[in-house]
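Support request from a user on the community tier.

User writes: "When I paste my structure tokens into the form, the page sometimes reloads and wipes my input. The last time it worked, I copied everything first. Here is what I submitted, just in case something in the input itself triggers the reload:"
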């Protein structure tokens, strides 16, 4: 039976409260935007309203994904349930992509049928009010997602911020129509918004697929390498075959570390624990991290990159310290051999 610890329960409850705020606000704003559409029959405003529906649907899906991602590891899910967050942003991306297609279809229809919007004054004020509310919501979610290392909340905030940008462009177009009477601006802006929405939907889908396929996040790798280079010990002769995987707020790191071959097993174990403690301390802001670190014995040719000058069995003189980077840390190759 799955058991939740108190910290996990508190974190999940906090994330659920945040995403519930997003869900409720998005629902209210969606109703307001559809009211603006029925007042004006502007296809551009309809485009904005359709995108807002996605905010509501994605928020509802995110509620479940946050609950599931917060569940602890069990026998059937030894790495936890965090991968569901990538399903969440993938679902959101797919919904955004569909909305973009619908918007383009509706805009094209209005161009061929030469439909003109009604008086847009009332709709303009509603759009301004909903855009300001969305701006507050997006900033709130992005800050909360960064603070809690939640890709679901941060992704939801990023999506709503995109909605703010598109709504801002829409307000500009409505103002232009209001003062010039250029009705062709309405479908033109709708097409532009549709393309922007399609691009953002693709980006979320791309991020979802990369996470589900365990694509390496090079920014995380660079941070880890920087930490190891900054705090390296002389006994850590080499690091290679590094892999970093993300499971929601949890990360899994495995790598090989070359140590002096003559170290007793207990000393080698302490070296590995020291490395783990070092990374854990530097990683606190990202979330929890677990390790699978394999220790390799050094070879005589490793002496050329080994800075342990008091080594009692040195075969070759030290030549140059190997600075770890992506090129030599990620491949499964022991260096100096």
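"...and here is what came back when it finally went through:"
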């Amino acid at each position: 039976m799955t058991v939740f610890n108190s910290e996990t329960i508190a974190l999940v409850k906090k994330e659920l409260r945040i995403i519930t705020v997003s869900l409720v606000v998005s629902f209210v704003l969606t109703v307001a935007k559809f009211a603006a559409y029925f007042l004006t029959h502007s296809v551009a405003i309809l485009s904005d309203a359709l995108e807002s529906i996605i905010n509501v649907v994605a928020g509802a899906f995110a509620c479940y994904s946050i609950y599931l991602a917060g569940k602890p590891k069990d026998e059937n899910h030894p790495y936890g349930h965090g991968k569901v967050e990538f399903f969440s942003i993938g679902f959101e991306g797919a919904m955004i992509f569909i909305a973009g297609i619908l918007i383009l279809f509706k805009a094209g229809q209005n161009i061929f049928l030469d439909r003109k919007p009604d008086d847009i004054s009332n709709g303009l004020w509603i759009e301004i009010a909903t855009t300001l509310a969305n701006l507050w919501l997006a900033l709130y979610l992005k800050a909360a997602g960064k603070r809690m290392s939640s890709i679901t909340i941060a992704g939801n905030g990023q999506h709503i911020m995109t909605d703010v940008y598109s709504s801002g462009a829409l307000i500009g177009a409505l103002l232009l129509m209001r003062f010039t009477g250029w009705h062709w601006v309405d479908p033109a802006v709708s097409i532009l918004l549709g393309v922007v929405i399609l691009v953002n939907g693709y980006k979320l889908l791309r991020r979802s697929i990369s996470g589900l396929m365990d694509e390496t996040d090079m920014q995380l790798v660079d941070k880890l390498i920087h930490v190891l280079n900054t705090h390296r010990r002389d006994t850590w002769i080499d690091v290679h075959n590094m892999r970093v995987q993300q499971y929601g707020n949890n990360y899994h790191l495995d790598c090989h570390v070359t140590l002096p071959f003559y170290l007793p097993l207990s000393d080698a174990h302490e070296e590995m624990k020291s490395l783990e403690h070092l990374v854990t301390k530097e990683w606190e802001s990202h979330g929890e991290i677990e390790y699978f670190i394999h220790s390799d014995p050094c070879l005589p040719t490793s002496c050329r990159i080994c800075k342990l000058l008091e080594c009692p069995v040195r075969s070759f003189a030290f030549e140059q310290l190997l600075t770890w980077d992506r090129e030599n840390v990620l491949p499964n190759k022991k260096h100096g051999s």
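Agent notes: The reload is a front-end session timeout and is unrelated to the input. The domain at 218-329 is CATH 3.30.70.1350 (Alpha-Beta Plaits). DSSP finds nine helices and three strands in the chain. Escalated to web team.
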